[in-house]
Structures are given as C-alpha cells and as structure tokens.
Amino acid sequence: MIPDPSRKYRAYPPISLPNRQWPSRTLSHAPIWCSVDLRDGNQALAVPMNVSQKLELFDALVRCGFKEIEIGFPSASNTEFAFMRRLIEDGRIPEDVTVQVLVQAREDLIHRTVESLAGVRKGIIHLYNSTSPAQRRIVFGLEKPQIVEMARKGTRWIKERLPMLAGSDIRLEYSPESFSATEVEFSLEICEAVMEEWGPTPERKVILNLPDTVEVAMPNVYADQIEWFGTHLKNRDAAIISVHTHNDRGTGTAATELALLAGAERVEGTLFGNGERTGNLDIVTVALNLYMHGIAPGLDFSKINALRDVYERCTGMHVPPRHPYAGELVFTAFSGSHQDAIRKGLAQWEGEAGEAGKAIWDIPYLTIDPSDLGREYREVIRVNSQSGKGGVAYLLESEFGIELPKDMQREFGPLANDAVDALGREVSAGELKAMFWKEYVDRRSPLELHHFHADGVSGVFRCRASLRRDGADLAVTGEGNGPIAAFVHGLTSAGLAPFEVVDYRQAALGSGTEASAISFVKIRTPEGREVWGAGVNTHIQLASIEGVLSALNRAQASR
Known about the structure:
Layout: E1 32-35, H1 37-43, H2 51-64, E2 68-72, H3 78-89, E3 98-104, H4 107-116, E4 122-130, H5 133-140, H6 144-160, E5 169-177, H7 184-198, E6 206-212, H8 219-232, E7 239-245, H9 252-261, E8 266-269, H10 283-291, H11 304-315, H12 336-356, H13 389-400, H14 406-423, H15 429-441, E9 447-457, E10 460-469, E11 472-480, H16 483-493, E12 500-509, E13 516-524, E14 530-537, H17 540-557
C-alpha cells in the first residue's frame, strides 16, 4: 500500500440531488425478484455447472418461488444453448415462470439467442452494452453517440426477429452495463434511446436494469443515481427500474436496499451472493431482511439448509459459517451473556405465544426465529471455553431435561468452562452431561451408600442406612420430620461434622417405567460454605439421599 493513496485513486463524485426523497422512505412490499444464478453465478465458477447441475438448481429456484430466472447466455456456447432448449422442449418451465437470456448488442449473437427461445411461453431478452467512460475509451474506443447507436441497433435487431417467436410473450430488458460508473445523464440518454426504439407502454413495460456492475461509491451514491434516473426518465410509467448490485466494497446488500427506497422495483441477484469477484447481491439476505421486518418477501426459504445443500452441490461453492441467515453458526451463541439472554428470551416468548396464540418475536441476539427457516433451537446455543453458565444450563435442559437451580448453575458453569478450556474446543451436549455426572452424580468417596430404608408415622420418620466411609463400614440410624432430615440426623449422630440441608429440588428424567429421578441438594458446612450435590435413581427417595452424599463428598474434596 502507498502512503498517499490519493495519488493513485480518487473518490467517485457525488450526484447533485438536493431534494432527495429516499432517506425518509420505508419499504412496505417486496420487489420483483430475478435470479441470475444460472448465468451470472455460473460464469463466475471455476468449473461451470453441467446441464444436470443447472437443471437441479433451476428446479430449486422454482421451488423457492422465483418467477423470473435468467438461465444463461445461449449464444455463448452449445452447452448454454442446449440447456435453454432442454428446459423448453421437456416442458420444465412452469407457466408462471419467465426465463431470461442475456445477449450483447451484436446481430449474430441476437439471432442465435432468439433461436434458442423458440417455443417458450414467456421470455425476457436481456440486452446490454457497456457505457462507462473507461469502457468507452479502453474497450470500445467509441464516443457517446456511437455507444447509443450500438444500443439502438441491438434493440432493433431483437424487435425485427420477434416474428420468429410468434405465440411467445417476449419482453425486453436493457442494461447500460457499468451504470454505477457512468454519468447519469448519459445513462438516461441511452435508456431513453432504447425505449424510443422498442416502444414500450404502461401495459407492456420495458425493464431498465441499472447495474452496480462494479461498486465504485458508497451505497447512498448509488441510491442517488437511481432516484435521479427515475425522476428524470421520460415515460416513467412504461418502465420497470431494476437493479443488479455487486459486492466489491462489501455493501451490495445496502446498495440494493437503498436503491429500493430510491424507486427501484426489481432486484437481480443470486443465492448466497455467488458471482464475479466478491460476488453478486445475495437475494436470500435481502428477502429475509424484509421478512424480519414483517414484509412478505414472496420467496420461500423455509428449508434453507436443504437449499444450501443444493447450492453447494451444484456450484461447488461453500456458504461461510457466518453468512447471514444460512451460515452454520449464525444462530449460535458462544458468549455466556448472549447465551443467557437467548435462553431467557426464548422461554418468555414461548410462554407468551402459548398464552395468546401468537407473540411478536423479540429475542435478544436473534433477529429471526430459526424455525421459520427450518432450523432448530438446539443450534442456537453451543458451548466452548467462552461460554457461561447460561449456555451450559441451556444444553443440559434442552437435550436431557436437566433443569439446574440458578445457584447450581453459578457453581457448575465455571467448573464446566475450566474443563472445556482444557480441551481447547467446543463440546457436545453429551460431553457436558458426562462432566456433570463426574462432578456430582458419580461422587462415591469418601461416602458411598449401600442400603437405605426409612418409614414414618405422625410426621416422624426413622431411617436405617449402611455406608462405606473411607473403606470402612458405617451404620447409620436417625429420625426427623422426613427421610432427608432423618438421614442428616443419623450421619451427625455417627460422627460426621454437623451440616444442614438449605435447598432441595427434585425432577423426573424421562418417562415410563424406566424413568429416573434427579435430586439437587445444597448443604451448608460448619464453616458456612454452601455446596451442591446431585443424585440420580429410579427410586425418588434414594435419589435425594444420594444427592446429600454427593454434596458431602464434594464439600470434603474441596477443603
């Protein structure tokens, strides 16, 4: 990098639009969507898709609800031409879907493109030529009038060949390629020339696609360009303004959303942003951004994992784990504070939804309900060394029904984090349960229970128990107002240091004849320390007694 980049680069000049309206607008409905996965996305692949892969992806796009799909560049190769013919001749295009094909403003290529569409029900011929100063000077060596004439001729050549497609509903789309780097006045001039040549009406509109072919400015500048264009265009009611953004500056989504505010009505893009250089606009992101604001996007991503699988299989590309909405980790929280907030939010929302039948989604850190996309809550919280007690508690509860008392969460959370930190990786729910069992349930030293029996009348219980203490037999008898109280009395009578049970909880693990009970017991030692224990047994009474011994054993081990 050079110390003074202004010697080599310059900022794109702003658009003079003192009365811009787009900043004060809000979006209220979805645009027309057009997928360009099979053309723009395909041409960006190191290994382009074969026909079978394109067919699979085409079917997936149809299932998502796309009504306009750019399927290729039929004049570019025999494979592209054959794919177009396969779709038409095999009747694979639904009646409500329009296929779109791209072509440069060259007569031979236009003729071949029109041939590829023979028999199609509904089609869009997408004509383009580059218009920016750099393209005019470097690529074509032409002046503005010659570039305009190129677009006029291309439009005329298409119009002259429409009789070849008699019976088909054919529309025109025109793109001044590199619109974002073109003077807005010239973009307007060339688009109006195309409209004059084509003759659109409010009933038969032309599509004017204004691409952010290469991002050269901040997204607000692109929005200004779109609004300026729309407010200066003659016969505005005879045109659909479309946008096609790329992501060179990493702001393709922002540019599209601001362009919609600025008057764009149609959006071209790809699944997960596949495309040249840094990629096309990710239509999934923009559509779900609308959805999470309560706007029906007109596209169905309720099985986003399956869609991601099709995309990766067909394109050979990979959706990054942090990709919006679709990435493996986007509904995952490793931070302990995030985990705790998500857990509490989900519990409250589910309670409100259950009581009222519906509830507005307002969960910390989750802008959208994962289940709306076919994902599961168990994906939300995972545990590694950065996790806190909330994440640990959530996994134990959601996977195994073990609902730890709050105080016990504060005790076990740091212990689990230390164990995970030593492993240096994420742990599964099963591994977390094993840590809990080792720390609490499987404590058998220095006290191990062999036998316990208690009975009582009139609120007085008597117990008899046999234990092993440091390898020696220990007989215990005691009485109290319940089995636990009687057992505590018996232990202290047998010589153990006095202690008291200050908290006791019990819950079922599983259901049916094989169900177990789990008890959580907190004791206070003579020194005033409070320690938790846990016991698990198919006999409810024995689970509580084992919980007491677990707490005593842990207190002894931590001295």
